[in-house]
Every structure is written in C-alpha cells, then in structure tokens.
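Design request, tokens follow.
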C-alpha cells in the first residue's frame, strides 16, 4: 500500500521546461520605490516654504482709528539713527528707566507711546520697550501712520 509521491506523468525528470531555462529573479524592482520617493520629494518641496516662521516682511500702515485721549500720554521717540527722546528731550537709554519712574503721576497706569522711525532697528525698539516695562509701565502703545486710501 504504498503511495507514490513522485512526479507522475513527467518521467521523473523534475520541473524542467521545454525551451529556455528561467532563473528566479533575485533583485528588488526599484522603479515603484523611486516613483514614490519622487512624489514625496515634490510634496516636501512644496510644503517646506509654508512652514517657515521667520519670513522677512514689510509691515503695512494701519487702518485703525485714532484714539481719543483725555490726557496727554508720555511719548518716547526713536529716530532713524537710534537716538531716544522722552517727549522732546534726548536722553541716553541708560537713563530712561529712572526718568520714567520720576515722571509717573498715576502709579504707572498712564499710557506711554513709542514713536519709532520706519528705518529704526527692531532691536533698539525692543530695548526701549524692555526699559519701559522695567520702569513699571503696563499700557504701552506703538504709534503708526494711518493708511491713506489710494
């Protein structure tokens, strides 16, 4: 009662085919992988500029209405060369905190406006704002020109 597991009908010769002998392909087909990688590259090239945070911009004039004021606010001005003026008097930045503390009338709740020239260095404006904050003022505003309709 034996059962033959051999190659029946082929004469015991195995898997030989007639004609050419084909070997198994042992390489990876990289064409689909290259296609996918190129699509991903294009997606990242399009998306990358949208992810940039520090884009240099030219800020526009504002359309905000002028504020009505009951009292005259304190004004700190910065000219194009970086000189700092408290009201109309030029002062060094080192004396700004002491002068602002000396002229405070209502316990640092007064409004204080910073008027900066267009060409003023951003770092200089930030230093002035830091000094005003260090002097105890909380209501700081930036002055700009109202946008003209063209």
């Amino acid at each position: 009662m034996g059962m033959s597991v051999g190659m029946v009908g082929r004469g015991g010769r195995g898997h030989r085919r007639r004609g050419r002998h084909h070997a198994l392909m042992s390489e990876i087909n990289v064409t689909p992988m290259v296609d996918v990688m190129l699509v991903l590259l294009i997606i990242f090239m399009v998306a990358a500029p949208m992810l940039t945070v520090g884009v240099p911009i030219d800020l526009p004039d504002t359309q905000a209405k002028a504020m009505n004021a009951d009292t005259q606010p304190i004004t700190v001005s910065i000219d194009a060369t970086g000189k700092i003026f408290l009201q109309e008097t030029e002062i060094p930045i080192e004396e700004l905190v002491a002068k602002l503390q000396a002229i405070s009338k209502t316990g640092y709740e007064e409004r204080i406006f910073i008027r900066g020239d267009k060409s003023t260095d951003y770092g200089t404006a930030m230093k002035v704002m830091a000094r005003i904050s260090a002097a105890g003022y909380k209501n700081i505003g930036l002055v700009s020109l109202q946008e003209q309709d063209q």
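Comment from the thread starter after seeing the answer: thanks! Residues 49 and 108 are 43 Å apart (CA to CA).
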